[in-house]
Specification:
The structure is a single chain. Helices cover 28% and strands 15% of the residues. The chain has 590 residues and is of the alpha/beta class. The chain has an 8-stranded parallel sheet with strand order 11-10-9-5-2-1-13-12. The chain has a 5-stranded antiparallel sheet with strand order 14-15-16-20-18, with helices on both faces. A 3-stranded antiparallel sheet has the order 6-8-7, with no helix packed on it. A hairpin with a 4-residue loop joins strand 7 and strand 8 (160-163). Helix 11 runs parallel beside helix 15 (466-479). It is globular and about 75 Å long. It binds 1-O-alpha-D-glucopyranosyl-D-fructose and calcium ion. Residues 24-26, 28, 30, 32 line the site of calcium ion (CA).
Length: 590
Protein backbone atom coordinates (compact mmCIF):
# COMPACT_ATOMS: atom_id res chain seq x y z
CA UNK A 1 0.00 0.00 0.00
CA UNK A 2 1.24 3.43 -0.90
CA UNK A 3 2.41 5.69 1.90
CA UNK A 4 -0.02 8.50 2.75
CA UNK A 5 1.28 12.01 2.33
CA UNK A 6 2.20 13.65 5.64
CA UNK A 7 0.81 16.99 6.77
CA UNK A 8 0.57 19.07 9.96
CA UNK A 9 -3.21 18.97 9.95
CA UNK A 10 -3.13 15.19 9.68
CA UNK A 11 -0.88 15.02 12.72
CA UNK A 12 -2.86 17.65 14.63
CA UNK A 13 -5.45 17.18 17.34
CA UNK A 14 -8.36 19.59 17.11
CA UNK A 15 -10.20 21.01 20.10
CA UNK A 16 -13.55 22.66 19.40
CA UNK A 17 -14.40 25.72 21.48
CA UNK A 18 -18.00 26.89 21.74
CA UNK A 19 -17.08 30.44 22.77
CA UNK A 20 -20.22 31.55 24.61
CA UNK A 21 -19.96 28.52 26.91
CA UNK A 22 -16.21 28.24 27.41
CA UNK A 23 -15.09 30.84 29.94
CA UNK A 24 -16.51 34.24 30.88
CA UNK A 25 -13.80 36.73 31.85
CA UNK A 26 -15.97 39.76 32.70
CA UNK A 27 -18.98 38.42 34.56
CA UNK A 28 -21.67 39.17 31.97
CA UNK A 29 -22.59 35.49 31.82
CA UNK A 30 -21.25 34.97 28.28
CA UNK A 31 -17.98 33.26 27.47
CA UNK A 32 -15.56 35.53 25.60
CA UNK A 33 -12.19 35.87 23.85
CA UNK A 34 -10.30 36.98 26.94
CA UNK A 35 -11.79 33.96 28.67
CA UNK A 36 -10.35 31.67 25.99
CA UNK A 37 -6.97 33.38 26.34
CA UNK A 38 -7.00 32.71 30.08
CA UNK A 39 -7.62 29.02 29.49
CA UNK A 40 -5.09 28.40 26.73
CA UNK A 41 -2.67 26.78 29.13
CA UNK A 42 -5.34 24.22 30.03
CA UNK A 43 -5.54 23.31 26.35
CA UNK A 44 -1.80 23.29 25.84
CA UNK A 45 -1.39 20.97 28.83
CA UNK A 46 -4.02 18.65 27.42
CA UNK A 47 -1.89 18.34 24.30
CA UNK A 48 -4.28 19.56 21.62
CA UNK A 49 -2.65 21.43 18.75
CA UNK A 50 -5.43 23.05 16.72
CA UNK A 51 -8.30 25.14 18.08
CA UNK A 52 -11.53 25.56 16.15
CA UNK A 53 -13.77 28.42 17.27
CA UNK A 54 -17.47 28.38 16.53
CA UNK A 55 -18.57 31.72 15.00
CA UNK A 56 -17.52 34.81 16.96
CA UNK A 57 -18.62 37.37 14.37
CA UNK A 58 -21.19 40.11 14.72
CA UNK A 59 -24.58 38.44 14.88
CA UNK A 60 -28.09 38.93 16.29
CA UNK A 61 -27.62 35.37 17.61
CA UNK A 62 -30.86 33.85 16.42
CA UNK A 63 -28.88 30.65 15.80
CA UNK A 64 -25.95 31.27 18.18
CA UNK A 65 -23.69 33.05 15.74
CA UNK A 66 -24.57 31.05 12.61
CA UNK A 67 -26.52 34.12 11.51
CA UNK A 68 -23.73 36.59 10.73
CA UNK A 69 -24.46 40.27 10.17
CA UNK A 70 -20.83 41.32 9.60
CA UNK A 71 -18.14 38.83 8.57
CA UNK A 72 -15.35 41.23 9.45
CA UNK A 73 -16.42 42.30 12.94
CA UNK A 74 -16.33 40.54 16.31
CA UNK A 75 -19.52 40.17 18.33
CA UNK A 76 -19.28 42.75 21.13
CA UNK A 77 -20.24 40.13 23.76
CA UNK A 78 -17.03 38.28 22.85
CA UNK A 79 -14.73 41.31 22.83
CA UNK A 80 -13.00 43.39 20.16
CA UNK A 81 -10.86 42.77 17.11
CA UNK A 82 -7.88 43.64 19.31
CA UNK A 83 -8.89 40.85 21.72
CA UNK A 84 -9.14 38.46 18.78
CA UNK A 85 -5.70 39.49 17.51
CA UNK A 86 -4.31 38.91 20.98
CA UNK A 87 -5.93 35.48 21.03
CA UNK A 88 -4.36 34.54 17.71
CA UNK A 89 -0.94 35.69 18.92
CA UNK A 90 -1.29 33.77 22.19
CA UNK A 91 -2.35 30.63 20.35
CA UNK A 92 0.61 30.87 17.99
CA UNK A 93 2.97 31.65 20.87
CA UNK A 94 2.03 28.27 22.32
CA UNK A 95 2.70 26.59 19.02
CA UNK A 96 -0.93 25.87 18.37
CA UNK A 97 -3.12 26.72 15.35
CA UNK A 98 -6.40 28.59 15.09
CA UNK A 99 -9.22 27.59 12.74
CA UNK A 100 -12.22 29.88 12.21
CA UNK A 101 -15.80 29.00 11.31
CA UNK A 102 -16.83 30.10 7.83
CA UNK A 103 -20.59 30.47 7.36
CA UNK A 104 -21.23 31.37 3.75
CA UNK A 105 -24.30 29.38 2.80
CA UNK A 106 -26.35 32.13 4.43
CA UNK A 107 -26.04 35.41 6.30
CA UNK A 108 -28.17 37.03 8.97
CA UNK A 109 -31.19 39.02 7.76
CA UNK A 110 -29.42 41.94 9.50
CA UNK A 111 -26.41 41.75 7.15
CA UNK A 112 -26.09 44.93 5.09
CA UNK A 113 -26.30 42.87 1.88
CA UNK A 114 -29.69 41.57 2.89
CA UNK A 115 -31.10 44.87 4.15
CA UNK A 116 -30.04 46.38 0.82
CA UNK A 117 -31.57 43.46 -1.07
CA UNK A 118 -34.86 44.12 0.71
CA UNK A 119 -34.95 47.68 -0.59
CA UNK A 120 -36.28 46.58 -3.92
CA UNK A 121 -36.03 44.37 -6.95
CA UNK A 122 -33.54 46.63 -8.70
CA UNK A 123 -31.15 47.00 -5.77
CA UNK A 124 -27.69 45.70 -6.80
CA UNK A 125 -27.66 43.36 -3.79
CA UNK A 126 -31.04 41.83 -4.61
CA UNK A 127 -29.38 38.99 -6.48
CA UNK A 128 -27.05 38.12 -3.58
CA UNK A 129 -30.03 36.10 -2.35
CA UNK A 130 -32.67 33.90 -3.96
CA UNK A 131 -36.03 35.54 -4.60
CA UNK A 132 -39.06 34.07 -6.33
CA UNK A 133 -42.70 35.07 -6.79
CA UNK A 134 -45.49 32.97 -5.35
CA UNK A 135 -46.51 29.80 -7.18
CA UNK A 136 -50.25 29.12 -7.25
CA UNK A 137 -50.59 31.73 -4.48
CA UNK A 138 -48.26 29.68 -2.30
CA UNK A 139 -44.55 29.45 -1.56
CA UNK A 140 -42.34 28.95 -4.67
CA UNK A 141 -41.83 25.30 -3.68
CA UNK A 142 -42.59 22.87 -0.86
CA UNK A 143 -39.15 22.75 0.84
CA UNK A 144 -39.06 22.95 4.61
CA UNK A 145 -36.52 24.93 6.57
CA UNK A 146 -34.07 22.92 8.65
CA UNK A 147 -35.63 24.30 11.82
CA UNK A 148 -39.34 23.75 10.93
CA UNK A 149 -41.80 25.51 8.64
CA UNK A 150 -41.40 26.55 5.01
CA UNK A 151 -37.95 27.34 3.58
CA UNK A 152 -39.46 30.50 2.04
CA UNK A 153 -40.28 33.78 3.70
CA UNK A 154 -42.71 36.24 2.16
CA UNK A 155 -41.62 39.86 1.68
CA UNK A 156 -44.72 42.05 1.31
CA UNK A 157 -42.78 45.02 0.00
CA UNK A 158 -41.77 43.26 -3.22
CA UNK A 159 -44.46 40.56 -3.17
CA UNK A 160 -41.73 37.90 -3.45
CA UNK A 161 -40.34 35.15 -1.26
CA UNK A 162 -36.71 34.58 -0.29
CA UNK A 163 -35.10 31.21 0.34
CA UNK A 164 -33.79 30.24 3.79
CA UNK A 165 -32.75 26.64 4.44
CA UNK A 166 -32.46 27.40 8.16
CA UNK A 167 -34.45 30.04 10.11
CA UNK A 168 -36.13 32.97 8.29
CA UNK A 169 -33.42 35.13 9.90
CA UNK A 170 -30.80 33.17 7.90
CA UNK A 171 -31.44 33.96 4.20
CA UNK A 172 -29.44 31.77 1.79
CA UNK A 173 -26.78 33.43 -0.32
CA UNK A 174 -27.04 33.06 -4.07
CA UNK A 175 -23.76 31.46 -5.16
CA UNK A 176 -24.83 31.68 -8.80
CA UNK A 177 -23.88 35.35 -8.59
CA UNK A 178 -20.14 35.76 -9.41
CA UNK A 179 -19.99 39.12 -7.60
CA UNK A 180 -21.16 37.51 -4.38
CA UNK A 181 -18.54 34.81 -4.76
CA UNK A 182 -15.79 37.42 -5.21
CA UNK A 183 -16.90 39.20 -2.04
CA UNK A 184 -16.75 35.94 -0.09
CA UNK A 185 -13.26 35.17 -1.39
CA UNK A 186 -12.10 38.68 -0.50
CA UNK A 187 -13.42 38.25 3.02
CA UNK A 188 -11.67 34.87 3.35
CA UNK A 189 -8.39 36.36 2.11
CA UNK A 190 -8.78 39.16 4.64
CA UNK A 191 -8.92 36.67 7.53
CA UNK A 192 -6.11 34.57 6.11
CA UNK A 193 -3.92 37.64 5.78
CA UNK A 194 -4.39 38.11 9.52
CA UNK A 195 -2.68 34.76 9.95
CA UNK A 196 -5.39 32.23 10.73
CA UNK A 197 -4.63 28.60 10.03
CA UNK A 198 -7.78 27.49 8.29
CA UNK A 199 -11.55 27.22 8.12
CA UNK A 200 -14.31 24.93 9.22
CA UNK A 201 -16.91 25.52 6.53
CA UNK A 202 -20.52 25.46 7.64
CA UNK A 203 -22.86 23.38 5.41
CA UNK A 204 -20.54 23.98 2.49
CA UNK A 205 -22.18 21.20 0.48
CA UNK A 206 -25.45 23.19 0.40
CA UNK A 207 -24.23 26.28 -1.44
CA UNK A 208 -25.36 25.19 -4.91
CA UNK A 209 -29.09 24.77 -5.42
CA UNK A 210 -30.85 23.28 -8.43
CA UNK A 211 -31.95 26.54 -10.06
CA UNK A 212 -35.25 25.09 -11.20
CA UNK A 213 -36.04 24.86 -7.46
CA UNK A 214 -38.38 21.90 -8.01
CA UNK A 215 -40.79 20.58 -5.38
CA UNK A 216 -39.20 17.98 -3.12
CA UNK A 217 -40.50 14.47 -3.58
CA UNK A 218 -38.72 12.54 -0.87
CA UNK A 219 -40.98 13.32 2.07
CA UNK A 220 -43.68 11.42 3.88
CA UNK A 221 -47.20 11.35 2.42
CA UNK A 222 -49.38 14.26 3.45
CA UNK A 223 -46.48 16.36 4.70
CA UNK A 224 -46.91 20.04 3.90
CA UNK A 225 -43.22 20.90 3.72
CA UNK A 226 -40.54 18.43 2.70
CA UNK A 227 -36.78 18.46 3.18
CA UNK A 228 -35.49 19.44 -0.26
CA UNK A 229 -32.02 17.95 0.20
CA UNK A 230 -32.21 16.17 -3.15
CA UNK A 231 -31.98 19.62 -4.79
CA UNK A 232 -29.31 21.28 -2.68
CA UNK A 233 -27.12 18.69 -0.91
CA UNK A 234 -24.02 18.31 -3.11
CA UNK A 235 -25.85 20.41 -5.69
CA UNK A 236 -25.10 20.87 -9.41
CA UNK A 237 -22.29 23.49 -9.22
CA UNK A 238 -20.89 22.83 -5.75
CA UNK A 239 -17.54 21.40 -6.95
CA UNK A 240 -17.09 24.19 -9.46
CA UNK A 241 -17.60 26.73 -6.65
CA UNK A 242 -15.27 25.02 -4.21
CA UNK A 243 -12.57 24.61 -6.84
CA UNK A 244 -12.87 28.28 -7.64
CA UNK A 245 -12.58 29.10 -3.92
CA UNK A 246 -9.57 26.82 -3.69
CA UNK A 247 -7.89 28.58 -6.57
CA UNK A 248 -8.74 32.12 -5.51
CA UNK A 249 -8.07 31.63 -1.80
CA UNK A 250 -7.13 28.33 -0.23
CA UNK A 251 -4.21 27.27 -2.36
CA UNK A 252 -2.30 30.44 -1.54
CA UNK A 253 -1.83 29.50 2.12
CA UNK A 254 -0.60 26.58 4.20
CA UNK A 255 -3.91 26.04 5.94
CA UNK A 256 -6.37 23.29 6.75
CA UNK A 257 -9.98 23.16 5.64
CA UNK A 258 -12.78 20.97 6.89
CA UNK A 259 -16.14 21.14 5.17
CA UNK A 260 -19.32 20.36 7.04
CA UNK A 261 -21.26 18.16 4.63
CA UNK A 262 -24.59 16.79 5.89
CA UNK A 263 -25.86 13.95 3.75
CA UNK A 264 -22.50 13.34 2.05
CA UNK A 265 -21.82 9.71 1.16
CA UNK A 266 -18.39 8.27 0.50
CA UNK A 267 -18.66 8.91 -3.25
CA UNK A 268 -19.46 12.56 -2.61
CA UNK A 269 -16.67 12.79 -0.06
CA UNK A 270 -14.08 11.60 -2.56
CA UNK A 271 -15.03 14.55 -4.74
CA UNK A 272 -14.63 17.05 -1.89
CA UNK A 273 -11.41 15.71 -0.37
CA UNK A 274 -9.98 13.35 -2.98
CA UNK A 275 -6.33 13.78 -3.90
CA UNK A 276 -5.86 15.99 -6.95
CA UNK A 277 -9.38 17.39 -6.61
CA UNK A 278 -8.10 20.74 -5.32
CA UNK A 279 -11.06 21.26 -3.06
CA UNK A 280 -10.93 20.62 0.71
CA UNK A 281 -8.64 18.74 3.12
CA UNK A 282 -11.30 16.82 5.02
CA UNK A 283 -15.00 16.81 5.71
CA UNK A 284 -17.47 16.21 8.47
CA UNK A 285 -19.89 13.55 7.27
CA UNK A 286 -22.80 12.54 9.46
CA UNK A 287 -23.33 8.83 8.89
CA UNK A 288 -22.32 8.07 12.46
CA UNK A 289 -24.37 10.93 13.87
CA UNK A 290 -27.41 9.67 11.93
CA UNK A 291 -27.10 6.17 13.35
CA UNK A 292 -29.99 6.61 15.80
CA UNK A 293 -32.15 8.67 13.46
CA UNK A 294 -35.29 6.65 12.70
CA UNK A 295 -36.25 8.47 9.49
CA UNK A 296 -32.80 9.29 8.16
CA UNK A 297 -33.57 12.87 7.17
CA UNK A 298 -31.16 14.50 9.61
CA UNK A 299 -34.07 15.54 11.84
CA UNK A 300 -32.96 14.85 15.39
CA UNK A 301 -36.44 14.46 16.84
CA UNK A 302 -37.22 10.93 15.64
CA UNK A 303 -34.59 8.82 17.37
CA UNK A 304 -34.26 5.05 17.48
CA UNK A 305 -31.82 2.83 19.42
CA UNK A 306 -28.43 2.31 17.81
CA UNK A 307 -26.40 -0.90 17.47
CA UNK A 308 -22.65 -1.25 17.80
CA UNK A 309 -22.48 -3.44 14.70
CA UNK A 310 -23.88 -0.59 12.58
CA UNK A 311 -21.66 1.90 14.38
CA UNK A 312 -18.58 -0.15 13.49
CA UNK A 313 -19.75 -0.67 9.93
CA UNK A 314 -20.00 3.10 9.38
CA UNK A 315 -16.54 3.72 10.81
CA UNK A 316 -14.97 0.90 8.83
CA UNK A 317 -16.64 2.08 5.63
CA UNK A 318 -15.05 5.53 5.98
CA UNK A 319 -11.71 4.31 7.31
CA UNK A 320 -11.32 2.06 4.27
CA UNK A 321 -12.98 4.40 1.83
CA UNK A 322 -10.69 7.36 2.39
CA UNK A 323 -7.46 5.47 3.04
CA UNK A 324 -4.84 6.87 0.73
CA UNK A 325 -7.55 8.68 -1.23
CA UNK A 326 -8.55 11.46 1.13
CA UNK A 327 -8.54 12.04 4.87
CA UNK A 328 -11.07 11.51 7.63
CA UNK A 329 -12.24 13.92 10.34
CA UNK A 330 -13.21 11.89 13.39
CA UNK A 331 -15.66 13.21 15.95
CA UNK A 332 -18.29 11.72 18.22
CA UNK A 333 -20.09 14.98 18.92
CA UNK A 334 -20.08 18.71 18.33
CA UNK A 335 -22.26 21.67 19.29
CA UNK A 336 -25.18 20.24 17.27
CA UNK A 337 -25.43 16.90 19.04
CA UNK A 338 -25.97 15.51 22.51
CA UNK A 339 -22.95 14.56 24.60
CA UNK A 340 -21.27 11.50 23.06
CA UNK A 341 -20.70 10.06 26.52
CA UNK A 342 -24.43 10.05 27.28
CA UNK A 343 -25.29 8.84 23.79
CA UNK A 344 -22.72 6.16 22.99
CA UNK A 345 -21.26 5.46 26.43
CA UNK A 346 -22.53 5.63 29.97
CA UNK A 347 -22.89 8.78 32.01
CA UNK A 348 -23.66 7.22 35.39
CA UNK A 349 -21.94 4.20 36.95
CA UNK A 350 -19.24 3.84 34.29
CA UNK A 351 -18.80 7.49 33.37
CA UNK A 352 -15.01 7.61 33.72
CA UNK A 353 -14.46 4.31 31.92
CA UNK A 354 -16.87 5.09 29.11
CA UNK A 355 -15.47 8.57 28.52
CA UNK A 356 -11.92 7.27 28.29
CA UNK A 357 -13.01 4.37 26.10
CA UNK A 358 -14.71 6.72 23.62
CA UNK A 359 -11.63 8.96 23.68
CA UNK A 360 -9.52 5.95 22.77
CA UNK A 361 -11.65 5.41 19.68
CA UNK A 362 -11.46 9.02 18.46
CA UNK A 363 -7.72 9.19 19.03
CA UNK A 364 -6.65 5.88 17.52
CA UNK A 365 -8.54 5.99 14.23
CA UNK A 366 -7.07 7.15 10.94
CA UNK A 367 -7.98 10.79 10.37
CA UNK A 368 -7.75 14.00 12.35
CA UNK A 369 -9.39 13.69 15.78
CA UNK A 370 -11.79 16.39 17.04
CA UNK A 371 -12.38 16.83 20.76
CA UNK A 372 -15.37 18.93 21.81
CA UNK A 373 -15.02 21.10 24.91
CA UNK A 374 -15.89 19.18 28.06
CA UNK A 375 -15.26 15.75 26.54
CA UNK A 376 -11.86 15.78 28.25
CA UNK A 377 -13.56 15.77 31.67
CA UNK A 378 -16.53 13.57 30.76
CA UNK A 379 -19.30 16.17 30.74
CA UNK A 380 -22.79 14.74 30.29
CA UNK A 381 -26.21 15.61 28.89
CA UNK A 382 -28.39 17.88 30.97
CA UNK A 383 -32.11 17.55 31.81
CA UNK A 384 -33.78 20.86 32.64
CA UNK A 385 -37.43 20.39 33.67
CA UNK A 386 -38.55 23.70 32.29
CA UNK A 387 -38.52 24.52 28.58
CA UNK A 388 -37.68 28.12 29.57
CA UNK A 389 -34.19 26.95 30.53
CA UNK A 390 -33.48 25.94 26.93
CA UNK A 391 -31.95 28.37 24.44
CA UNK A 392 -31.45 26.47 21.17
CA UNK A 393 -33.81 27.65 18.42
CA UNK A 394 -34.25 24.11 17.07
CA UNK A 395 -35.23 22.83 20.53
CA UNK A 396 -37.64 25.70 21.15
CA UNK A 397 -39.24 25.30 17.72
CA UNK A 398 -39.60 21.56 18.24
CA UNK A 399 -41.31 22.16 21.59
CA UNK A 400 -43.80 24.58 20.03
CA UNK A 401 -44.56 22.30 17.07
CA UNK A 402 -44.93 19.21 19.23
CA UNK A 403 -47.20 21.02 21.70
CA UNK A 404 -49.32 22.34 18.85
CA UNK A 405 -49.59 18.80 17.52
CA UNK A 406 -51.03 17.76 20.88
CA UNK A 407 -48.08 15.75 22.20
CA UNK A 408 -47.64 15.29 25.93
CA UNK A 409 -45.34 17.75 27.75
CA UNK A 410 -43.40 15.02 29.58
CA UNK A 411 -42.90 13.01 26.44
CA UNK A 412 -41.60 16.12 24.64
CA UNK A 413 -39.25 16.98 27.50
CA UNK A 414 -37.86 13.45 27.53
CA UNK A 415 -37.00 13.77 23.87
CA UNK A 416 -35.41 17.15 24.50
CA UNK A 417 -33.31 15.73 27.33
CA UNK A 418 -32.02 13.11 24.97
CA UNK A 419 -31.61 15.07 21.77
CA UNK A 420 -31.37 18.82 22.35
CA UNK A 421 -28.34 20.68 21.01
CA UNK A 422 -28.25 22.45 24.39
CA UNK A 423 -26.90 19.22 25.90
CA UNK A 424 -23.52 20.15 24.49
CA UNK A 425 -23.93 23.89 24.99
CA UNK A 426 -24.14 24.17 28.79
CA UNK A 427 -21.14 26.03 30.25
CA UNK A 428 -17.77 24.36 30.62
CA UNK A 429 -17.34 23.08 34.18
CA UNK A 430 -14.10 24.50 35.57
CA UNK A 431 -14.42 23.95 39.33
CA UNK A 432 -16.97 23.42 42.09
CA UNK A 433 -17.59 27.08 42.87
CA UNK A 434 -20.90 28.66 41.91
CA UNK A 435 -21.79 28.24 38.22
CA UNK A 436 -18.89 25.81 37.89
CA UNK A 437 -16.46 28.70 37.85
CA UNK A 438 -17.65 29.57 34.34
CA UNK A 439 -18.89 33.05 35.26
CA UNK A 440 -19.22 35.30 38.28
CA UNK A 441 -22.52 36.54 36.84
CA UNK A 442 -25.64 34.79 35.58
CA UNK A 443 -24.80 32.35 32.79
CA UNK A 444 -26.68 32.75 29.49
CA UNK A 445 -27.71 29.11 29.82
CA UNK A 446 -27.79 27.23 33.12
CA UNK A 447 -24.84 25.13 34.19
CA UNK A 448 -25.32 21.38 34.40
CA UNK A 449 -26.07 20.75 38.11
CA UNK A 450 -23.52 17.91 38.21
CA UNK A 451 -20.54 20.31 38.20
CA UNK A 452 -19.60 19.43 41.79
CA UNK A 453 -18.58 15.95 40.67
CA UNK A 454 -17.52 16.80 37.11
CA UNK A 455 -15.08 19.66 36.66
CA UNK A 456 -11.63 20.48 35.38
CA UNK A 457 -10.09 21.23 38.77
CA UNK A 458 -11.09 17.87 40.16
CA UNK A 459 -9.87 16.01 37.08
CA UNK A 460 -6.53 17.76 36.97
CA UNK A 461 -5.81 16.73 40.55
CA UNK A 462 -6.59 13.08 39.96
CA UNK A 463 -3.90 10.97 38.25
CA UNK A 464 -6.50 8.50 36.95
CA UNK A 465 -9.00 11.01 35.70
CA UNK A 466 -10.48 11.28 32.23
CA UNK A 467 -8.36 14.39 31.71
CA UNK A 468 -5.10 12.60 32.48
CA UNK A 469 -6.13 9.68 30.30
CA UNK A 470 -6.66 12.13 27.43
CA UNK A 471 -3.18 13.52 28.04
CA UNK A 472 -1.63 10.06 27.80
CA UNK A 473 -3.67 9.14 24.76
CA UNK A 474 -2.79 12.36 22.94
CA UNK A 475 0.89 11.88 23.73
CA UNK A 476 0.70 8.31 22.48
CA UNK A 477 -0.84 9.38 19.18
CA UNK A 478 1.74 12.11 18.66
CA UNK A 479 4.62 9.68 19.22
CA UNK A 480 3.36 6.98 16.90
CA UNK A 481 2.99 7.60 13.19
CA UNK A 482 1.23 4.23 12.87
CA UNK A 483 -1.70 5.65 14.82
CA UNK A 484 -1.86 8.59 12.43
CA UNK A 485 -0.96 7.20 9.03
CA UNK A 486 -1.37 3.48 9.56
CA UNK A 487 -3.78 1.23 7.77
CA UNK A 488 -6.95 0.31 9.67
CA UNK A 489 -7.97 -3.36 9.93
CA UNK A 490 -11.13 -4.29 11.81
CA UNK A 491 -11.90 -7.61 13.50
CA UNK A 492 -14.94 -9.19 15.14
CA UNK A 493 -17.15 -7.05 12.96
CA UNK A 494 -20.31 -8.85 14.06
CA UNK A 495 -19.53 -8.75 17.76
CA UNK A 496 -22.29 -6.76 19.49
CA UNK A 497 -20.12 -5.26 22.24
CA UNK A 498 -16.44 -5.27 21.31
CA UNK A 499 -14.79 -2.94 18.82
CA UNK A 500 -11.39 -4.31 17.79
CA UNK A 501 -8.98 -3.10 15.14
CA UNK A 502 -5.37 -2.89 14.16
CA UNK A 503 -3.41 0.11 12.99
CA UNK A 504 -0.46 -0.90 10.86
CA UNK A 505 2.40 1.07 9.36
CA UNK A 506 5.72 -0.23 8.05
CA UNK A 507 5.58 -3.32 10.24
CA UNK A 508 4.62 -1.39 13.35
CA UNK A 509 1.29 -2.64 14.68
CA UNK A 510 -1.14 -1.51 17.30
CA UNK A 511 -4.18 -3.40 18.49
CA UNK A 512 -7.09 -1.41 19.91
CA UNK A 513 -9.68 -3.24 21.97
CA UNK A 514 -12.80 -1.44 23.19
CA UNK A 515 -15.74 -2.71 25.20
CA UNK A 516 -18.87 -0.71 24.39
CA UNK A 517 -20.98 -2.46 27.01
CA UNK A 518 -21.50 -2.42 30.75
CA UNK A 519 -20.80 -6.15 30.87
CA UNK A 520 -17.57 -7.92 31.63
CA UNK A 521 -16.77 -9.98 28.59
CA UNK A 522 -14.94 -13.25 28.82
CA UNK A 523 -12.97 -12.98 25.67
CA UNK A 524 -11.76 -16.43 24.65
CA UNK A 525 -9.70 -16.46 21.59
CA UNK A 526 -7.26 -19.37 21.42
CA UNK A 527 -5.04 -18.04 18.67
CA UNK A 528 -4.77 -14.64 20.18
CA UNK A 529 -1.57 -14.69 22.19
CA UNK A 530 -1.48 -11.72 24.47
CA UNK A 531 2.05 -12.65 25.52
CA UNK A 532 3.21 -11.34 22.16
CA UNK A 533 1.55 -8.04 22.74
CA UNK A 534 2.60 -5.28 25.02
CA UNK A 535 -0.19 -3.42 26.74
CA UNK A 536 0.74 0.22 26.48
CA UNK A 537 -2.45 1.96 27.52
CA UNK A 538 -5.51 0.89 29.46
CA UNK A 539 -8.31 2.68 31.26
CA UNK A 540 -8.22 0.05 34.04
CA UNK A 541 -5.17 0.17 36.26
CA UNK A 542 -5.25 -3.52 37.13
CA UNK A 543 -5.21 -4.63 33.51
CA UNK A 544 -1.53 -3.79 33.50
CA UNK A 545 -0.69 -5.56 36.75
CA UNK A 546 -2.93 -8.59 36.74
CA UNK A 547 -2.69 -11.19 34.06
CA UNK A 548 -6.38 -11.69 33.41
CA UNK A 549 -6.16 -10.52 29.88
CA UNK A 550 -9.17 -12.45 28.75
CA UNK A 551 -11.58 -10.59 30.93
CA UNK A 552 -12.59 -7.39 29.27
CA UNK A 553 -14.29 -5.24 31.85
CA UNK A 554 -17.13 -2.75 31.26
CA UNK A 555 -16.15 0.04 28.89
CA UNK A 556 -12.55 -1.13 28.96
CA UNK A 557 -10.15 0.36 26.45
CA UNK A 558 -6.78 -1.19 25.73
CA UNK A 559 -4.08 -0.31 23.27
CA UNK A 560 -1.45 -2.98 22.63
CA UNK A 561 1.70 -2.80 20.60
CA UNK A 562 3.02 -5.88 18.86
CA UNK A 563 6.46 -7.00 19.98
CA UNK A 564 9.41 -6.82 17.61
CA UNK A 565 9.35 -10.37 16.29
CA UNK A 566 5.75 -10.79 17.07
CA UNK A 567 3.46 -13.13 15.22
CA UNK A 568 0.42 -14.86 16.49
CA UNK A 569 0.37 -18.54 17.25
CA UNK A 570 -0.33 -20.56 14.16
CA UNK A 571 0.55 -17.65 11.94
CA UNK A 572 2.99 -18.03 9.12
CA UNK A 573 5.51 -15.24 9.27
CA UNK A 574 4.33 -12.12 7.54
CA UNK A 575 0.70 -13.09 7.69
CA UNK A 576 -0.04 -12.26 11.26
CA UNK A 577 -2.87 -9.96 10.34
CA UNK A 578 -4.67 -12.85 8.70
CA UNK A 579 -4.02 -15.19 11.60
CA UNK A 580 -5.26 -12.61 13.98
CA UNK A 581 -8.33 -12.25 11.88
CA UNK A 582 -9.08 -15.95 11.95
CA UNK A 583 -8.49 -15.97 15.68
CA UNK A 584 -10.64 -13.00 16.39
CA UNK A 585 -13.18 -14.08 13.85
CA UNK A 586 -14.20 -16.99 16.08
CA UNK A 587 -17.72 -16.81 17.47
CA UNK A 588 -17.66 -14.56 20.51
CA UNK A 589 -17.70 -16.66 23.65
CA UNK A 590 -19.75 -14.52 25.97
O1 LIG B 1 -25.28 22.70 11.05
C1 LIG B 1 -25.83 22.09 9.92
C2 LIG B 1 -26.81 21.06 10.23
O2 LIG B 1 -27.68 20.85 9.43
C3 LIG B 1 -26.74 20.37 11.54
O3 LIG B 1 -27.60 21.10 12.37
C4 LIG B 1 -27.19 18.95 11.55
O4 LIG B 1 -27.04 18.55 12.87
C5 LIG B 1 -26.48 17.98 10.67
O5 LIG B 1 -26.81 18.26 9.37
C6 LIG B 1 -26.82 16.52 10.98
O6 LIG B 1 -27.59 15.88 10.04
C7 LIG B 1 -24.59 23.89 10.92
C8 LIG B 1 -24.15 24.38 12.28
O7 LIG B 1 -23.24 23.47 12.84
C9 LIG B 1 -25.35 24.59 13.15
O8 LIG B 1 -25.01 24.94 14.47
C10 LIG B 1 -26.18 25.69 12.50
O9 LIG B 1 -27.38 25.84 13.19
C11 LIG B 1 -26.48 25.39 11.03
O10 LIG B 1 -25.36 24.90 10.31
C12 LIG B 1 -26.91 26.65 10.32
O11 LIG B 1 -25.84 27.49 10.15
CA1 LIG C 1 -18.20 37.73 29.01
Amino acid sequence: MQQQQTNWWKEGIVYQIYPCSFYDSNGDGIGDLQGIIQKLDHLKKLGVTILWLNPIYKSPNVDNGYDISDYQAILADYGTMADWEQLLAEVHKRDMKLIMDLVVNHTSDQHSWFTAACEGKDNPYRDYYTWRPAKNSKEPNNWCGHFFGSAWQYDSKSDEYYLHLFTPEQPDLNWENPKLRQEIYQMMNWWLAKGIDGFRMDVINMISKDQALPDATDGKKGEKYIYGGQYFLNGPRVHEFIQEMNQKVLTKYDIMTVGECPGAKLDDALLYVGKERNELDMLFQFELMDIDDAIGDGNRWNPKPWQLVDFKRVITHWQHGLHDKGWNANFLMNHDFPRALSRFGNDTLFRTKAASMLATLTLTLAGTPYIYQGEEIGMTNVAFDDIDNYRDIDTLNFYKEAKAAGRDHNEIMQLIHKRSRDNSRTPMQWDNSENAGFTSGTPWIKVNPNYNEINVELDQKHPESIYSYYQKLIALRKENPALIYGEYRPFLEEHPALFVYLRVLNGVKFLVLLNFSEHTIDFKCPEFKYSKLKLILSNYRSAINENIHHVIRPYAARVYKFGAACTLSGAKSGSDGKALESGLGAKPAW
